[in-house]
Design goal:
The protein has helices at residues 35-40, 47-53, 88-94, 178-189, 203-207, 215-221, 258-264, 292-295; strands at 27-32, 43-44, 60-64, 70-78, 81-84, 102-109, 112-118, 152-156, 159-163, 196-200, 211-212, 227-231, 237-243, 253-254, 272-279, 284-290. By secondary structure, it is of the alpha+beta class.
Length: 296
């Protein structure tokens, strides 16, 4: 009779110790972006993290994303609470962070954090990169970062299409309403013949008289331009001004003139607009509107 061979399950192949809580300097936490976070434009650090590491944090935190770019964000401290504040808005705008996004932070010590950003599809985003890893997100005297990109981009047949995800309804609490999702899908199916970008219109764009332009699009097609015309499907157009920030040569927003255009064309929060460049010389953007109400 053959002797029995005893096997022993080895634990050497998998080390679970790194999953256990420890007192090492590395610490992880995540934050879900809520409507209040977008309104206040600051992000609170978890109470437990503040208890364990708050005393060691300086006045400025460094946020590093996987593409190697780093951002400096001012920390606001009050009543045993800490928030990412000065510079946080630009980090959010550059990475198109919106309601319902999921952000994972890994604390490395010395007020430095590695950051992963996940969108509303639960997929990690494609991190934009402007070629300058060191200056990206550096604070100026007003404690704000340099102006950054607000869109997620896709290259399609050498023409730039920019898509921003639909904001979450603060009243219904859903990340994507049925009508909003269908409107966005319809806009994505649209095949313009010219360079274009897509914007889901948030409430602040209707209240504050501006809408963001993707810097990639602006740099390529509107660099140095001061005026733009927005043309409705009827053929009528509205003159608007392009707005710049911090001495840049490419515009960040469409400003004066946007509010009358939005009002006259009945644009509502959550509607999806496709901006198509039909005249490069005069910067005329034809705007196709996909209304949430029509897709509800």
């Amino acid at each position: 009779m053959a002797p029995k061979v005893r096997t022993r399950r080895s634990r050497a192949g998998t080390n679970w110790d790194h999953h256990r809580p420890s007192r090492c300097i590395h610490s992880h936490f995540f934050k879900i972006i809520l409507p209040s976070t977008m309104q206040d434009m600051k992000l609170g650090l978890p109470e437990k993290f503040v208890r364990e590491h708050g005393d060691k944090l300086s006045g400025v935190a460094t946020l590093a994303v996987p593409n190697g770019c780093t951002w400096q964000v001012r920390l606001e401290k009050a009543n045993n609470n800490i928030w990412f504040h000065g510079g946080w808005r630009d980090f959010v705008e550059y990475h198109s962070i919106n309601y319902g996004y999921f952000i994972v932070f890994k604390y490395k010590g010395n007020s430095k954090f590695n950051v992963l950003v996940f969108d509303m599809t639960t997929s990690e985003i494609k991190y934009p990169y402007n070629g300058d890893k060191k200056r990206q997100g550096s604070l100026n005297e007003n404690e704000m970062s340099t102006p950054q990109e607000l869109c997620v981009k896709e290259e399609v047949d050498t023409e730039l299409i920019v898509i921003e995800n639909l904001p979450m309804s603060s009243t219904r609490g859903s990340v994507l309403s049925g009508g909003g999702e269908r409107a966005l899908q319809a806009a994505r199916m649209f095949e313009p013949k010219n360079p274009s970008f897509i914007r889901v219109i948030p409430a602040y764009s209707l209240k504050r008289n501006f809408v963001y332009v993707c810097p990639e699009f602006a740099k390529k097609y509107a660099c140095g331009k001061k005026n733009v015309k927005l043309q409705a499907s009827s053929g009528k157009w509205w003159p608007c001004q392009l707005c710049f920030k911090n001495g840049t040569t490419s515009p960040k927003t469409i400003g004066k003139g946007w509010k009358p255009f939005a009002r006259d064309n009945g644009i509502k929060e959550g509607d999806v607009c496709v901006f198509e460049l039909i005249n490069r010389m005069d910067v005329v953007l034809k705007v196709s509107i996909y209304r949430v109400a029509e897709y509800a």
